[in-house]
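Trying the structure run again after the queue cleared.
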Amino acid sequence: MDGLRLRSTVVVSALALGLAASSLAAAAPASAVTQRVDATTPSSAITGMWAWGNPIDPATDARGEGMPQFEPQALAGFAAAHQLHTVFLSVPWAADEGPFSAWLSESVAALHAAGVTKVAALGGDPAWADDPSLAATWTSAALRAAPFDAVQFDVEPWVVSSDSELPAVVAKLNTMYDAAKAAAGPVPIGADLPWWLAAKPQPGGGTAFDALLPHLKSVAIVAFSDHAAGTDGIIAYAKPAATAAAAKRIPFTIGVETDTPEVAGGPAATFGDDTAALLESETAKVRAALSSLRGYGGVTVEHLNSWQDLLAR
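Done. Tokens:
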């Protein structure tokens, strides 16, 4: 999700709803899945996840990916088992057409019933930065499809841009966010932004990260590393951006990766070749270091499929 990351489209099998971590999703009623099995277990620092995928049969709709872990009750069960507050749920183009609207509406309702307070429509394409009307059209369709609490953009034009082009990219993104905001009405707009934008100065002063914040209501600071401490750790990466967000009173979470090293850009960028226990212990250190900042909202995991894979080992 930053410049080093290529999004995986690999279909991960259903496992046992992550699956061992959340087997109660399919069998238990909504009231049961909202209860933590072991009340003595300390709360995790992880409060959210990106969920890229859908359960729609591709034979029914070409946009379908046929992933059973994205069925509404499966999503809700997993979110409840991990006490998640935020879910960024991927939404295709023209989400209000075909079978997607029913799935999205049911998923939002199930996640809310499971205790998730923010279900955001997640989407993005680098082309949207060059044509903001596309972002506005996608936003309108997503909000017609389901009653989302927010809209979350993962648009990464810096993947194909140089540092010298970054000021122009920032200006394009701000225009895109504003177009989406106009389409969304009262529904807030958020974005995934890599940590290093807070180290890129803008010609008029401040950083690229600073310039984007006024156009957003929340931000997921992407800080992909498999350890918390050190100059190349999550805390050092994320802290300047987190401090900037706190100063502007913009709520933020810290994003970490669980996909394969091949997808993430190397083993140091992901917990995907580590263990679920290490993910928990390192993110707890992130919480200890950053939770005193205004607007801190926890750690968000990229992404459901690979996190379930990690938990099942």
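The radius of gyration is 18 Å. Worth checking whether this holds up in the mutant runs.
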